[in-house]
Amino acid sequence: MTPVQVLFIISSLALLGLGFMVVTTRNLVRAALYLIGTLFSVAVVFVLLEASFLAVVQVVVYIGAIAILFIFAVMLTRRVMQDTGSQTNSNWPWAALVALLLFGGLTYILTSWSGSSAEAPALSSQSDMVTELGKALVNPDAYILPFEVASILLLAALIGAVVVAWDRD
Amino acid sequence: MDFLSDPILFLANWLTGLMQGWGWADSFINVVVTFLGVFLVANFGMLYVIFLIWLERKLAARIQDRLGPNRAGPYGLFQTIADILKLFTKEDTTPAGADKLIFNIAPVLSVFSVLLIWAVVPFAQQWIGTDLNVAVLYIVAVGSIGIVATLIAGWSSNNKFAMLGAFRTVAQLVSYEVPMVLSLLVPVLLARNMGLNAIVEAQSNWISIFFWMAPIAALIFFISSIAEVGRTPFDLLEAESEIVAGFHIEYSGAKFAMIFAAEFLHAFTISVLTITLFFGGWQGWGDANPIVGWVWFMIKSMTAYFAVVWIRSTLPRIRIDHMLNYNWKFLTPISLAVLIVTAVLDRVIFDVFDPGAVTFAYVRSGILFAANLIIAWITVALLRRQWSQRPARVPVGQPRPVARPPEVSAEAQSTVS
pTM for the complete prediction? Predict the structure, then answer.
């Protein structure tokens, strides 16, 4: 077993375990912290796939922005940050069935796909993935349209936030 | 390969050879050597903090016309070691009702977030933990873990002052991340690379250091980094006179020491980042030897650290609404302006002038410096106009002191003096 495989097993176990803890814990702040751990494990998996940019962006966006917002909202909203009611309702068997079917379907598709057992092509040390990604984002033949659409959406959200917060008096 | 030309590579090669002699597998040796490197960098940081704390106390004392630590050892050098021994032998208390897991993990996370930055810092040309191609983004990412640490330290203490400190954390650290990231983008633009070593290598002589091309961005980065560390004048998260000790009020002993070590190391780390991004890092006069680069690196970063201590021991704490206004209404717009102007202008310079010419570096630095001066001048003009148009203050009442000083007659005053 290579060191990379050991790291992969550790981070996947952490990912699954922490993900399970997110949905089962009753304490909301702890759930947010387990979520941070889960997202960090995903970042580690990205690193193992040699996608350093995605790994770092994962940490910046999900931990640096979204998770902190979660924790802050949870801190402000509840006086007692613990739920005492039941964690499930009467629809849980249906949810379990759908989840199981989805998992089975995905497993079936992925095992029958030839790419899942193929060896990843070795990256040349010269190619700079970040430069390639940046060029692809502004290339008319590649992803310029989705990139611009996402930018306009974010700009609209920013302007919307300013309008909502504007004190017109 | 001899020892003096690159001691660390020499030792790494020697260790690899030694372990190969023991018949270990190459991949395993690689892991062991990498772990030793991590151990070396992390422990350098943690041990250097001992010296930094002494230095900071001594400098702050001199600036405030005091002596500072002067009993334990020569010039009080062993004072910090005595303090560490004291802190580690103190009782380790956990407040009742605290979330124990989170309470105990927060100091670890705060040290962790600072030490992780050191993984990408180039100490010399060849001495770099890992030459990540997204290092600048990585610094931002790791900084956010520090915010989480402060936040959960404040929340889990089950103390309202700690909680207030945590709220202030969000208001301050998250806000000041915006101008910090925007000003971090300027050296990335100028170097056309996000790797820290590539950024240092782009600043190859004294005229092409990025401070000349982006003085405003350098200042904004320095200011917002100080705010990120949370020291005076931005120490609102632990303001002693308002919320006792802020987010770390309930910590004692070793955990308190960890939070403090993280803060002091972070103060040095921002000096290191400032000189790496804007003042050429390990570049300097002399041979291309890692030891020479290391010396330059330390000289520059200690100078920047002196500025950090100087600011800390000179300025008073800023009020919370001023702190937010300063960030959102001053630093963020000006850093956006600097980013846009630099991006457009640098592109135009590369098209108009010949990048191969000898004088190109002078032309580039000169034009960008002039552009920065113009931005600064416009900012000052706008601020002046805003100040002259500020609404007049309407007094809502006259102060009525409960206790008045005794009326002193003119004769009595003259006899006293």
Answer: 0.84
